[in-house]
């Protein structure tokens, strides 16, 4: 008898006023659900140095679920879970690494918005602004940068064509002991607050044909040491042609990108390193269904920047791509691309780190589909 009564009670409770009712269609008008997928067939070959792997395989380059919408006429939310990323919970911000976005935006006025939660840093440039869905390979800085972190920010539309944004974020997602452990360096200590401060300016000129996207940031990674990061982004767009150019300068008192750090012995960390990058992307709409793209990139790394400024390596990249969109009312495209990267180590690096230059060549054939489910 008791089992029967409890069973009736649970059944009744489960049907009592659900939070989201299918009958109430208005709630779905303010919610967007998307499923982004990029799947490709790739053939790759490394040559030179100690790099000799070759292979052919299918790969899920990007798979993510996006949910966004309005909680109130002045409150929006945004959530993105990237499935092909680590699901390990980060010890500092207490979110798994595969959750890239989980923030709320509050509209304080027509010109002023506030952001709270895990979000993308307001770094400048157009390489970072693209969704990872559309970037087949990032340049060296963003391949290794911590792009999604927890904090608070604001945006202010000062003029019709000029917006300013500001953020205060955690500079990392892991606690000191989890990230650095027993690193051998006298000046590596835990700060009171590992914080990153970001300032951003977006400008529009000549009826939107020319845009600028600049940023400057200072992060405090460990006590009294961090990173100075500057990005100057430019975009020109006219009819079917779009051209973007980013310049990036990252001086790191402690190597957060770990490109040079990975050349050192275990339990050591590189200090006073510099990364300088150039990124260029051109897009041309050949026809309503065909688009041609070309991405070119360089990245130069220096060690001991404040003293001897030793050049470690320069990497070069080229990614020509042809995209085909067969459907008029569905944003789905097939693509074929070549990804070529060359990593040229200096004599200093070869002597001190026992490395040698190498290159990577890839052919990718795949599909990009940002699917709007709701």
What does this structure look like?
InterPro entries: Porin_O/P (IPR010870). Helix content is 9%, strand content 55%. The chain is mainly beta and 374 residues long. It has one domain (41-372): Porin. Mean pLDDT is 88; it is low at 1-16.
User: How much helix is in the residues?
Assistant: under 10%
pLDDT averaged over residues: 88
CATH-level-2 architecture: Beta Barrel
Shape: globular
| Beta-strand percent range | over 45%
Protein name: OprO/OprP family phosphate-selective porin
Pfam families: Porin_O_P
Organism: Psychroflexus longus
InterPro entries: Porin_O/P
Name the descriptors.
single chain; mainly beta; Porin; 16-stranded antiparallel barrel; OprO/OprP family phosphate-selective porin; Porin_O/P
Summarize this entry quickly.
This protein is mostly beta strands and 374 residues long. It has helices at residues 2-14, 26-29, 140-144, 176-179, 347-353; strands at 31-47, 54-72, 75-82, 99-107, 112-120, 148-159, 162-170, 195-205, 210-222, 225-238, 241-254, 271-285, 290-303, 310-324, 333-345, 358-372. The chain has a single domain, classed as Beta Barrel (Porin), CATH 2.40.160.10.
Please outline the helices and strands.
Layout: H1 2-14, H2 26-29, E1 31-47, E2 54-72, E3 75-82, E4 99-107, E5 112-120, H3 140-144, E6 148-159, E7 162-170, H4 176-179, E8 195-205, E9 210-222, E10 225-238, E11 241-254, E12 271-285, E13 290-303, E14 310-324, E15 333-345, H5 347-353, E16 358-372
Antiparallel strand pairs: 1-2, 1-16, 2-3, 3-4, 4-5, 5-6, 6-7, 7-8, 8-9, 9-10, 10-11, 11-12, 12-13, 13-14, 14-15, 15-16
């Amino acid at each position: 008898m008791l089992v029967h009564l409890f069973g009736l009670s649970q059944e009744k409770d489960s049907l009592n006023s659900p939070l989201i009712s299918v009958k109430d269609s208005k709630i779905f008008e303010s919610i967007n659900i998307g499923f982004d997928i990029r799947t490709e067939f790739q053939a790759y070959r490394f040559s030179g140095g100690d790099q000799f792997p070759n292979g052919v395989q299918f790969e899920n380059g990007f798979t993510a679920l996006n949910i966004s919408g309005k909680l109130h006429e002045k409150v929006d939310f945004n959530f993105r879970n990237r499935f092909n990323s680590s699901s390990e919970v980060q010890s500092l911000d207490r979110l798994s690494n595969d959750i890239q976005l989980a923030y709320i935006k509050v509209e304080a006025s027509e010109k002023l918005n506030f952001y709270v939660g895990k979000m993308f840093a307001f770094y400048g440039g157009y390489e970072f602004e693209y969704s990872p869905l559309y970037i087949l390979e990032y340049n060296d800085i963003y391949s290794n940068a911590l792009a999604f972190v927890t904090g608070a920010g604001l945006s202010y539309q000062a003029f019709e064509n000029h917006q300013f944004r500001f953020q205060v974020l955690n500079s990392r997602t892991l606690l000191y002991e989890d990230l650095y452990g027993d690193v051998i360096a006298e000046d590596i200590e835990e700060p009171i607050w590992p914080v990153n401060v970001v300032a951003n300016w977006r400008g529009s000129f000549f009826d939107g044909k020319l845009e600028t996207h600049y940023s400057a940031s200072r992060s405090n990674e460990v006590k009294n040491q961090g990173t100075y990061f500057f990005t100057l982004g430019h975009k020109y767009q006219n009819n079917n042609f779009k051209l973007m150019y980013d310049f990036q300068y990252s001086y790191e008192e402690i190597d957060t990108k770990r490109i040079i750090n990975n050349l050192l012995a275990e339990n050591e960390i590189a200090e006073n390193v510099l990364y300088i990058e150039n990124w260029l992307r051109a897009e041309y709409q050949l026809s309503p269904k065909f688009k041609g793209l070309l991405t070119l990139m360089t990245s130069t790394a220096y060690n001991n920047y404040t003293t001897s400024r030793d050049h470690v390596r320069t990497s070069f990249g080229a990614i020509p791509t042809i995209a085909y969109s067969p459907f008029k009312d569905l944003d789905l495209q097939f693509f074929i691309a070549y990804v070529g990267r060359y990593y040229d180590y200096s004599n200093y690096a070869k002597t001190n780190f026992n490395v040698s230059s190498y290159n990577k060549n890839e052919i990718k054939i795949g599909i990009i589909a940002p699917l709007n489910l709701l």
